[in-house]
Design a protein that fits this description.
Pfam families: PLDc_2. The protein is of the alpha+beta class. It contains 20 helices and 10 strands.
Length: 560
């Protein structure tokens, strides 16, 4: 992270001031989002930035201000100017006494760089050019600077109610809202009868009853700021992985592994070690890792990780990296087993915890959330992790315009849909209707499996598919030969009725049971009658297995 002091008011040169840096940032190609939090705004401040905001609109995804109206510190003309420019602006008003909305914070976010300017400058001519002001500009690499990421996350967390527009104290600036603010005497006027634009020397909310002097706005050159890349180049202490490092790496990492085994299992090379070359090599690897970016070549980092090199010390970060790598290898195992010929890697999030790949799918879902910056799922994806996932063409979000949908992806998606069907208890020991997509799909899979068994083949359904789908069906009481299962269970149920009635006869309890439960006895006898009637129609090869059930039970039937 690079910190730069921005000050003006003491020196007429004012080489580094907030106004110049706002202009440089809006003109930069490094950013795509801007959010500004200011207590007060005047026409001079909004007009100075107008041409630069207009240019930035074509390349920025977001340009948004959150402006206060406490102590009549914001002018009517400033808000009119923002409305005319079409700048997304929100008015923050806290109606509690003695509470003033008072921040001066500017956030520029980009894919590679992030810039935070925080200090004492409002969106007024005094704030960005003439007052004696003090601010700090913080520049850092968006993805790899952990300290910068932590700071940005803390800011976004603190102002989350404003940024997600959920705060009841926040209102979108519209013509109607502007009229209301004017009626409530919350804004001051800057256009005078003599045609000059004047504004008070704002007192930031102190001594609001005291009459103030006005100042006249003068021209000021703002187009001399510096861009973020100027803050990161020419770093004299920056290390690089050179040709000699490649030449010595194999030897040194071998010595390092031996050092770990024989002297320090923690992997930390002591500064007192006699092998000074190993110590300096160890220090340099750490330095390169902490620099981020491409300082430490990808293949070198992987070899260090395999050797359990203590990145981030011997604590949680190293353990996290090692575990992450092991989980990543499980994704590769899944792909090689389930979908080895696909150009891309796709892992669905299975719903059934008994699925052998449930944890793999869950892990991939967590990586997607981390990549989106969801803090509930752990730290944001590191550059190393991002590159590892890219190395297997992992599909983060499926887009039919970008990827040709692999058939194996469709199959696993269908399996997940079937898991959703069986997640409802009422669907136990049933199959979905063939009128539905998932019912039709399941019927196709059952047909393929039975044909493969019948023809003694192995090319119609892979072993892993048979295992995954078979386990899911078995867990929910369904067999591959679903129709045969229904017939068999129906026959077995009727045989049970016959056995029950026969037992009543053997114990001479038929009359007693009929008197107490006539409907139940009738149902059992109806089942027996149906079974005898059905058995007369089974005299063919397709149904011969049903006679075997009757013979095994000893059920009397009329043999054909």
């Amino acid at each position: 992270m690079k910190a730069t002091f921005l000050g003006h008011g003491l020196d007429t040169g004012d080489q580094n001031n907030v106004g110049k840096q706002l202009v440089a940032s809006f003109e930069s190609k490094d950013y795509y989002s801007f959010q500004g939090f200011v207590a007060f705004a005047s026409i001079s401040g909004t007009k100075m930035l107008e041409p630069f905001i207009k240019k930035a609109n074509s390349k920025f995804d977001k340009i948004r201000f959150y402006i206060g109206v406490d102590n009549r510190g914001t002018s009517k003309e400033a808000l009119e100017s923002l409305l005319e420019q079409g700048v997304e602006t929100y008015i923050y008003r806290d109606k509690r006494k003695f509470v003033t909305y008072h921040p001066k914070l500017f956030l520029f976010e980009g894919k590679k760089f992030t810039r935070i300017i925080i200090g004492s400058s409002n969106l007024t001519s005094q704030g960005i050019k003439t007052n004696l002001e003090a601010s700090i500009q913080l520049d850092f690499l968006t993805k790899t600077d952990k300290q910068g990421q932590k700071l940005l996350n803390e800011i976004k967390s603190y102002y989350s109610d404003l940024m997600d527009l959920s705060s009841p104290k926040l209102q979108l600036l519209t013509s109607q809202l502007l009229d209301e603010l004017i009626k409530q005497n919350l804004l001051f006027n800057q256009f005078r009868e003599n045609g000059k634009v004047e504004e008070p020397k704002n007192n930031d909310g102190e001594n609001t009853e005291k009459e103030q002097d006005n100042i006249e706005i003068k021209d000021f050159d703002l187009k001399s700021g510096f861009e973020q890349k100027d803050t990161t180049k020419n770093r004299s202490n920056k290390k690089s992985f050179g040709e000699s490092d490649y030449e010595k790496f194999d030897t040194l990492i071998e010595r390092y592994v031996i050092y770990k085994k024989t002297k320090r299992p923690s992997g930390i090379v002591s500064k007192h070690t006699e092998d000074r070359e190993l110590f300096h090599w160890y220090q340099k690897m750490h330095k390169l890792y902490n620099q981020g970016g491409d300082s430490l070549p990808f293949e070198i980092f992987e070899r260090l990780l395999d050797a359990e090199f203590p990145f981030g010390g011997i604590g949680r970060e190293r353990k996290r990296l090692i575990k992450w790598n092991k989980d990543f290898n499980k994704v590769i195992e899944y792909k090689n087993k389930v979908d080895p010929n696909s150009e891309y890697t796709y892992v669905p999030q299975f719903k059934n915890k008994s699925n052998p790949y449930y944890e793999v799918g869950r892990w991939c879902a967590w990586q997607k959330q981390r990549r989106k910056g969801n803090k509930n799922y752990g730290p944001e994806l590191t550059e190393y992790e991002e590159r590892k996932m890219q190395s297997i063409n992992f599909i983060w979000e499926f887009d039919s315009t970008m990827y040709k949908r692999p058939k194996d992806d469709e199959w696993t998606d269908s399996l997940v849909e079937l898991e959703n069907y069986y997640s409802k208890k009422k669907n136990y020991k049933t199959v979905p209707s063939q009128k539905t997509y998932i019912g039709h799909w399941l019927n196709d899979q059952m047909t393929i499996k039975l044909r493969q068994d019948r023809e003694n083949r192995s090319d119609l359904m892979s072993e892993i598919r048979e295992e995954m789908l078979g386990n899911l069906l078995a867990k929910n009481g369904v067999e591959w030969e679903w129709e045969k299962q229904k017939h068999r269970e129906g026959i077995e149920n009727k045989i049970a009725s016959w056995r029950f009635v026969e037992e009543l006869k053997s114990k001479n309890q038929t009359k007693e049971f009929r008197d107490k439960k006539p409907k139940i006895l009738k149902k059992h006898r109806d089942n027996i009658a149906q079974l005898r009637s059905q058995s007369k129609k089974w005299n063919n090869d397709k149904n011969r297995w049903k006679y075997e059930l009757l013979d095994e039970a000893g059920f009397p039937y009329e043999k054909q």
